[in-house]
């Protein structure tokens, strides 16, 4: 009667043989799918295409798993995947479990930021290691802040830097430089516009000199005349409403400094 030790050895050997057969079978499929070994009669391309996709997904999955094991030693990223239900065209395999995605519609989910394709049930198992790709980022506004900075590899969105640089190159604090900028802008006006504006500002300046009786200072007059003088043609009502504060500020400066600017 065989001993327990020999029984265990026999069981282990049988397991190793079965494992070797499975690996050899998988290897044959991968080799054949990649076109590295073909029989005497070449099957049609429609037969090999699904196998090639399967082989690529297997290789991608192996690389991803190896990368995940390597990253287990480092702190995980704070960027979670932005999964959306997706309908895939043609055969697709889950990049997490490497299993086929069955169905004709909504077979799985796709990360809108990095393009990762997985089963819906696998999405909760995927680590928070999303690396946004600009090929998948279609917008700047109404986009997640972390997604933008990771996609552009910057400390903050570039649009913020661009807007602030543009504003600061125009929002002057030195009074003399501000008046100099106003003079340069007024010099660009046609003579008819410039003369009319000069005459009107001189009149409004005289009105402010009687503020004690009419209660109309430069700020009050600017509130009244700003929208009329500064409104651009073909401007929609909402944009014009948002510009009222800036219109008032410009006209107030013109009234107060009429003797210097004109």
Architecture overview:
The chain has 262 residues and is mainly α. It is 56% helix and 4% strand. It has helices at residues 4-33, 45-71, 145-152, 158-168, 175-186, 191-208, 211-214, 218-230, 237-242, 244-256, 258-261, and strands at residues 83-86, 108-111, 117-118. A three-stranded antiparallel β-sheet has the order 1-2-3, with no helix packed on it. A hairpin with a 5-residue loop joins strand 2 (108-111) and strand 3. It is rod-shaped and about 110 Å long.
Properties at a glance:
three-stranded antiparallel beta sheet, mainly alpha, 262 residues, 4% strand, 11 helices, single chain
Describe the protein's topology.
Elements: H1 4-33, H2 45-71, E1 83-86, E2 108-111, E3 117-118, H3 145-152, H4 158-168, H5 175-186, H6 191-208, H7 211-214, H8 218-230, H9 237-242, H10 244-256, H11 258-261
Antiparallel strand pairs: 1-2, 2-3
Question: What is the structural class?
Answer: mainly alpha
Order of helices and strands: HHEEEHHHHHHHHH
- Tally of DSSP β-strands: 3
Overall helicity? 55-70%
Side-by-side strand order of the widest sheet: 1-2-3
Low-confidence stretches: none
**What is the mean pLDDT?**
77
Computed CA radius of gyration, to the nearest angstrom: 36 Å
- What separation lies between the terminal Cα atoms? 118 Å
Main sheet makeup: 3 strands, antiparallel
In one word, what is the shape? rod-shaped
Strand content: under 5%
Alpha plus pi helix count: 11
Structure, briefly:
With 262 residues, this protein is mostly helical. The protein has helices at 4-33, 45-71, 145-152, 158-168, 175-186, 191-208, 211-214, 218-230, 237-242, 244-256, 258-261, and strands spanning 83-86, 108-111, 117-118.
């Amino acid at each position: 009667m065989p001993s327990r030790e020999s029984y265990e050895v026999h069981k282990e050997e049988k397991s190793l043989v079965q494992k070797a057969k499975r690996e050899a079978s998988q290897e044959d499929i991968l080799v054949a799918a990649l076109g590295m070994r073909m029989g005497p009669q070449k099957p049609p391309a429609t037969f090999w295409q699904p196998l090639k996709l399967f082989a690529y997904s297997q290789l991608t999955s192996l690389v991803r798993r190896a990368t995940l094991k390597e990253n287990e030693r480092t702190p995980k990223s704070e960027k979670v995947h932005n999964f959306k239900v997706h309908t895939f065209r043609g055969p697709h395999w889950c990049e997490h479990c490497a299993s086929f995605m069955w169905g004709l519609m909504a077979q799985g989910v796709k990360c809108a930021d990095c393009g990762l394709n997985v089963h819906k049930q696998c999405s909760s198992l995927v680590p928070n290691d999303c690396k946004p790709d600009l090929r998948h980022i279609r917008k700047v506004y109404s986009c997640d802040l972390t997604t933008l900075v990771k996609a552009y590899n910057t400390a903050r969105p570039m649009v913020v830097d661009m807007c602030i640089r543009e504003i600061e190159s125009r929002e002057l604090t030195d009074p003399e430089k501000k008046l100099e900028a106003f003079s340069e802008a007024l010099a660009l006006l046609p003579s008819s516009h410039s003369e009319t504006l000069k005459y009107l500002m001189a009149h409004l300046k005289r009105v402010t000199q009687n503020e004690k009786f009419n209660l109309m200072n430069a700020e009050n007059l600017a509130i009244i005349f700003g929208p009329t003088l500064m409104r651009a043609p073909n401007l929609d009502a909402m944009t014009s409403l948002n510009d009222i504060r800036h219109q008032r500020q410009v006209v107030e400066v013109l009234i107060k400094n009429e003797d210097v600017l004109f």
